[in-house]
């Protein structure tokens, strides 16, 4: 697993609201967090790719696409 901390955060956002029977909160925040993490992980992967091979990609591509 490449991003284990994000997996733990997802579990927290599901489990903690369910402990207090906040079903809508669990559903809504889990969906929102999943979307945000998908955007963030893609950006992190692009940035890591740039660090590995800076001659193949430009900085504009990494931060704005």
From TrEMBL:
Stretches that traverse the bilayer: 6-36
Domain of life: Bacteria
InterPro entries noted in UniProt: ICMT_MeTrfase
Cellular localisation: Membrane
Swiss-Prot/TrEMBL GO biological process terms: methylation
GO MF annotation: an example: protein C-terminal S-isoprenylcysteine carboxyl O-methyltransferase activity
Membrane topology: Multi-pass membrane protein
Record-linked Pfam families: ICMT
Keywords from the UniProt entry: Membrane, Methyltransferase, Transferase, Transmembrane, Transmembrane helix
Any one annotated GO CC term: membrane
Protein name per Swiss-Prot or TrEMBL: Methyltransferase
Organism expressing this protein natively: Anoxybacillus pushchinoensis
High-level lineage: Bacteria, Bacillati, Bacillota, Bacilli, Bacillales
């Amino acid at each position: 697993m490449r991003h284990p901390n994000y997996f733990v955060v997802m579990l927290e956002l599901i489990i903690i609201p369910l402990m207090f029977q906040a079903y809508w909160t669990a559903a809504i925040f889990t969906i929102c967090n999943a979307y945000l993490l998908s955007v963030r992980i893609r950006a992190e992967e692009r940035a890591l790719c740039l660090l590995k091979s800076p001659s193949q990609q430009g900085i504009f591509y990494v931060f704005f696409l």
